[in-house]
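Async update (no meeting this week)

Hi team, since we skipped the sync, here's where things stand on the single-chain job. The sequence we agreed to prioritize is pasted below, unchanged from the tracker. I ran it this morning and attached the output directly underneath so nobody has to dig for it. Comments welcome in thread, and please keep replies under the output.
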Amino acid sequence: MNKGKVYIVGAGPGNPKLITVYGRECIEKADVIIYDRLISRELLAYAKEGTEFVYCGKEPKKHGNIQQQIHEWLVEHALQGKTVVRLKGGDPFIFGRGGEEAEHLRAHGIPYEIVPGVTAGVAAPAYAGIPVTHRNYAGGVTFIAGHQSGERDRIRWDALSQATDTIVFYMGMANIAYICEQLKRHGKDEHTPVAVIEWATTNKQRTVVGTLQTIVHLVQEHNFSSPAIIVVGDVVQLHDKLKWVEEIW
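Output:
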């Protein structure tokens, strides 16, 4: 039997309209779609009749052995000659474990393609009126995974605090107090602007703006939770001037 093919597709940051044209085409031709927790049902509706859906959502702090199971599903369905779409939020190669899945497919001789998606670290600030780079505010941006408490101390906080103008933290809400404390301890001014954007690009989006000194209190006061993106840097000052979602939603 001929092997099938796996498409590792980035679904974008939440708004189903932000998927790429090629990403949608992959969904439309899939025999099997293995999809994550935050995937919009509107995207799944593009699938053809008879498509098999496999849910593999990972709840925060409850990943368990699901990633290994995903690897096995990808190979199993592809060996049956099926067209498989691994549908992941954001971009599969930015904190999406797409690289691990591609490695597993390569090891088993399964053909695959990577279909990039719009990553939340850029899209969430954009929907909040915050450009992550700006000629007058920031010449560079760094993306950091802020979620796994057992690994967070691997971050070079001293270098991070001084080496980049804008810092964007994915999956950092559970550790936001720790993040702010480490940045201050390693040289960031406590008055550095910080924004937290919850449910970015969807009709549930909310944004709160403060500083390294105040943002923890503000997110607690307004009951912010995951999924959310944390943006640190002077570009956050542009939120009040450039916010546009509030004007159309």
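Quick observations from my side:
The chain has two domains: 5-115, 120-248.
The two ends are 51 Å apart (CA to CA).
Reply here if anything looks off.
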